Amino acid sequence: MRPNSLKQKLINQEQTYGSWITMAHPLIPDILAPAGFDWLAVDMEHSSIDLADLLPLLISIEANGIVPLVRVGEVNPNLIKRVMDAGTYGVIAANICSAEDVKKVVSAVKYSPEGSRGVGFYRAQAFGNKIESYFKWVKEQSVVIVQIEHIAAVNEIEEIFAVPGIDAFMIGPNDLSGSMNKPCQFDDPEVIASIEKVLEAGKKYNLPAGYHVMSPDPVEAAKWRERGFKFLGLSLDSIFLGDSVKKALQSLKNEC
After folding, report:
1. How far is the C-alpha of 133 from the C-alpha of 131, rounded, in Å?
2. Which residues have C-beta within 8 Å of that of residue 7, sequence separation ≥ 6?
3. Given 29, 54, 128, 144, which is the most exposed site by the fewest CB atoms within 10 A?
4. Residue 228 CB contacts under 8 Å (≥ 6 apart), including other chains
């Protein structure tokens, strides 16, 4: 596997940009690649993408010189092991609520002694031909990003961020506010305070902060960048497609 350029950028707290893939077609990365993203995340939480769909997407992302990531919707060691074996460079772990959750994710990504991932021969290991070099690659270059999107995680944020093996975190404001019985009330003082608590803990543990801006509007994304979010996701494939076609057709109709 290639050197993971995202790993070093996260260590250096450099700004990175990515997007989400929710449509299971290998041409999607080809279409998105010219934009110049640092990473693309295949979303296996909020899409119909399954393991059979994943492999051609990872191959396409990597072939375009972009770091492939996979978002998994649960702390499932077997699923994490399988997406890593397929060749993702790291996972974005959704629904993290405790330090124990993080330990399970890191353990599923890493081999012994850092973790407990089972050894198999598949694409990531070059079907057994590069197993030793892949052991080294996983230890040094695999990426674990945790999503903080529940008040239970906020209440245990110090313990969560203290777990070795985290490379960055993402805040999920929609689910976080919902877990506080205040869905999408982003101006609520308690919701704001919870987000700030996570950000402060991230600074303490020198972890880059991440955020997924659903809108394709760069002005909206820049607001979050100015707040210090280094791991920044810009919209997703279906929104880019839908938003562009609506704007183009509406403009055409207004001119006629």
Report:
1. 6
2. 89, 90, 140, 141, 142, 143, 167
3. 128
4. 199, 209
- Taking a C-beta distance cutoff of 8 angstroms, is the pair 69, 91 a contact? yes
Supply the pLDDT for residue 186: 86
Query: d(Cα 141, Cα 130) in Å, to the nearest integer?
Result: 15
Which sign does the torsion angle of CA 155, 159, 162, 163 carry? negative
What are the distances in angstroms from CA 25 to CA 29, 33, 52, 60, 183?
8, 14, 11, 9, 32
Question: According to the model, what pLDDT value does residue 212 have?
Answer: 93
pLDDT of residue 127: 97
Which residue, among 56, 71, 2, 33, has the nearest Cα to 231 in the 3D structure?
71
Q: Which candidate, 2, 25, 7, 191, places its Cα nearest to that of 90?
A: 7
Average pLDDT, 10 consecutive residues per value, the chain (256 residues): 95 98 97 97 97 97 98 97 98 97 98 97 97 98 98 97 98 92 92 95 97 94 95 97 94 85
Q: Return d(Cα 183, Cα 178) in angstroms, integer.
A: 4
For residue 70, the surrounding DSSP H or E stretch is strand 67-72
- Report strand pairing: 168-171 vs 143-148: parallel
99: nearest Cα among 161, 166, 167, 143:
161
Is residue 46 part of the annotated active site? The answer reads yes
Q: What is the pLDDT of residue 256?
A: 59
Q: Break the chain into its structural domains and give their ranges.
A: 5-255
Pick the catalytic residue: 25, 46, 150, 212? 46
CATH fold group of domain 5-255: TIM Barrel (3.20.20)
